Amino acid sequence: MCGIVGYIGNKNSSSILIKGLEALEYRGYDSAGIALIDNDKIKVYKEKGRVKEIRNNNDIDIDSHIGIAHTRWATHGMPSKENAHPHLDNSGLFGVVHNGIIENYGELKEFLQNKGYEFKSETDTEVIPNLIHYYYNIKKDVKEAFNMAVSELKGSYAILLISPLIKGIYVAKLSSPLVIGKGCKENFIASDIPAILEYTKEFYFLEDREIALVGDDKITFYNSKLEEINKDIKVIEWDKTAADKNGYDDYMLKEIYDEPRAVKETLAGRIRKDEKINFPNLNITKEQLNTINKIYIVACGTAMHAGLVGKKALEELTNILTIVEVASEFRYNKHIIDHNTLCIFVSQSGETADTIAALKLARDKGAITIAITNVIGSSITREALYTILTHAGPEIAVASTKAYVSQVVALISLAIYFKEIIDDKKELDNLKEQLLELPNLIDKLLDDTTKYQQIAKEIYQEKDIFYIGRGNDYNIALEGSLKLKEISYIHSEAYPAGELKHGPIALIEENTTVFGIITNEDIAEKTFSNLQEVISRGAKVILVSNLEVTNKKMNIINIPQVDNLLAPVVAIIPLQIIAYYIAKEKGIDVDKPRNLAKSVTVE
Ligand code: G6P
User: Fold this and answer.
1) Which of 47-56, 182-191, 246-255 is modeled with the greatest confidence?
2) Ligand 1 proximity of 311 Cβ (cutoff 6 Å)
3) Which of 379, 411, 445 represents a domain boundary (last residue)?
4) Is the distance from the beta carbon of residue 356 to the nearest atom of ligand 1 less than 6 Å?
């Protein structure tokens, strides 16, 4: 999805902006551009394609100290130079970059066209600088014109405005992420923290409909009535190298190898072997928990798969009915939600549009809301009653890996925490011990990946790959299959092993690859039988299991024995690595797979 960077200060803005855009490339985009103030004029450089096209433009290296930049992921209008941001108004006085979608741009465009404004692009964004210009002509004041224009916009936006008329950058947001990084005699603006993490750890987070004027030495915040307001700084403890590749070929591989640390830090301070679990931010009482009659876990993509594992833990440990739903469905389905409902929203970025919309809906109906997210200060943390942070560190690769394992351990810890509240005592020492042991177990799995690489070499040319399992093993299958299709473009499906006979087995033919996952002894025999059925129809089976299995007809990947609730955290590792090496064999850019975006900030 689109990315935004802004800079004002004593350094050369173009190099900082281009570096920022490069740091945002992982989000997926199709064109890029920057606008700089040069001798009281706005200069715009934009291209279809990669940021390096902008970097290669020698004209750009002018001595400018204010600028805005953008990577565009096309929504209104095809990827092209004309549609790329920044966009200027007809007079050239106002330059804008915008993330999000202006839903009423059609009527605004018509209104402006009737006033004589001409449009050069097919974008919704181009109405914004022209609307600012329209109000500027009436009010003769940029702040008022900016505020009047943005208050007319419906939909979602993060907007940066530059103009030779002002010594600063105006910023506004509604349902789209934006952070302001504080420097010394310089300030930074970005849609995502990693773009400017190199320069600062101190951030301001705008609330919806607030605006700010970011100068080089001063940042002024206003509410929608243009009254000045104060904002607190939040310190982000991510270290700069956390957003680098650190010697790895790709972010995804680096992030897989970072999983032991991610799990360890997510558990740190919350779980200690002989103590009750501690979530200092949660203030849920035994009385409240006793009134909760159902829990929803709502999320998208990988976060939703983590939610499925969370459901198992919550139902098993608390006996409360737990329903998992994808956010894009949840927000349009009819639900019986009231103050006896607990809704948990899981989102790595904390900015996924559907998840945030679902959260607002549940909150407005009176539910108790908890956000589980990786990004401090993200939108979801501001909407939910309680927040649990996963401490995976910045996740850059589109395909989520370390965020998944940290979400899973956060959810399982939450389930134990609830059980201890309900039962009023410390318990499940063994499970806690095993949780704390997970980083070591993942480390061991990552020690030697030769076998996984070998498997990838054998199957990378497949057209269809199936993943089957039961219970938590089916949850693992879902995430394994998603990883594969996201980055290898191989068609893949995950099925509950027992459902195979109700359709998908028709697709099994000579040499079809089927991954079987078996981590639960109680139902192992059932899945074995299903695997035998596909073997009899010619399938090649790769089995991921923590049981002692000797079967010459299967290629077996052994994983360590853990409680079945925790099995996804270890079983997913080989599946992530196999997906990674398959994509590498196919020469795919694993960090930026086609058509996908890291954080989906539009519906
Ligand atoms: C996109 C990403 C996925 C991610 C999903 C949810 O589809 O490509 O990797 O799982 O969004 O994102 P979130 O930030 O809400 O966890």
Assistant:
1) 182-191
2) no
3) 445
4) no
123 Cβ contact list (under 8 Å, min separation 6): 76, 77, 83, 85, 87
301 lines ligand 1 (CB under 6 A): yes
* CA–CA separation, 301 and 238 (whole Å): 24
355 CA → ligand 1 middle, Å:
10
Q: Which of 352, 375, 380, 388 has the most ligand 1 atoms within 8 A of CB, as the residue to mutate?
A: 352
Q: Tell me, using a 6 A CB cutoff, whether residue 407 lines ligand 1.
A: no
Q: Identify which has the larger pLDDT, 146 or 25.
A: 146
The two tokens of residue 232 are 């607190």
| Nearest-angstrom CA–CA distance, 74 and 33 | 13
Residue 212 and residue 284 in one domain: no
* 171: nearest Cα among 213, 121, 201: 213
Ligand 1 centroid to Cα of residue 490, in Å, is 19
Mean pLDDT of 353-381: 94
Structural domain harbouring 571: 450-585
Mean pLDDT of 94-107: 92
Are 369 and 481 in the same domain?
no
Q: Is residue 496 part of a domain?
A: yes
Q: Do 227 and 316 have their domain in common?
A: no
**Whose Cα sits closest to atom 7 in ligand 1?**
301
Residue 528 within any structural domain of the chain:
yes
Atom of ligand 1 nearest to the CA of 399: 9
Both 139 and 101 in one domain: the answer is yes
240 band by pLDDT with thresholds 50, 70 and 90: low
Q: Ligand 1: which of 176, 252, 297, 302 to mutate, judged by most atoms within 8 Å of the beta carbon?
A: 302
Q: Determine the distance separating the centroid of ligand 1 and the alpha carbon of 303, expressed in angstroms.
A: 7
Q: Report how many domains make up the chain.
A: 3
pTM over cut 0.85? no
Number of helical (H) and strand (E) elements in the chain, helices listed first? 18, 25
**129 upstream amide cis, omega within 30 of 0:** no
Confidence of residue 225 (pLDDT cuts 50, 70, 90): very high
**What is the number of alpha carbons within 13 Å of residue 4 lying toward its C-beta?**
28
Determine the distance separating the centroid of ligand 1 and the alpha carbon of 306, expressed in angstroms: 11
For the chain, give the number of residues. 603
What atom of ligand 1 comes closest to residue 486's alpha carbon? 8
- Name the CA dihedral angle for 464, 468, 474, 477, rounded to a multiple of 10 degrees: -40
Residues 427 and 571 in one domain: no
Please name the residue whose Cα sits nearest to atom 3 of ligand 1: 301
* Separation of alpha carbons 400 and 348, rounded Å: 8
**What 8-state DSSP symbol labels residue 60?**
G
Mutual orientation of helices 402-423 and 259-267 as an angle, nearest 10°? 20
Whether residue 391 is found in the same domain as residue 534: no
Domain membership flag for residue 591: no
Indicate if ligand 1 lies below 6 Å from the C-beta of 487.
Answer: no
- Domain limit, last residue, from 174, 209, 236: 236
What pLDDT is recorded for position 75? Answer: 75
Q: So which residues are the catalytic ones?
A: 2, 598
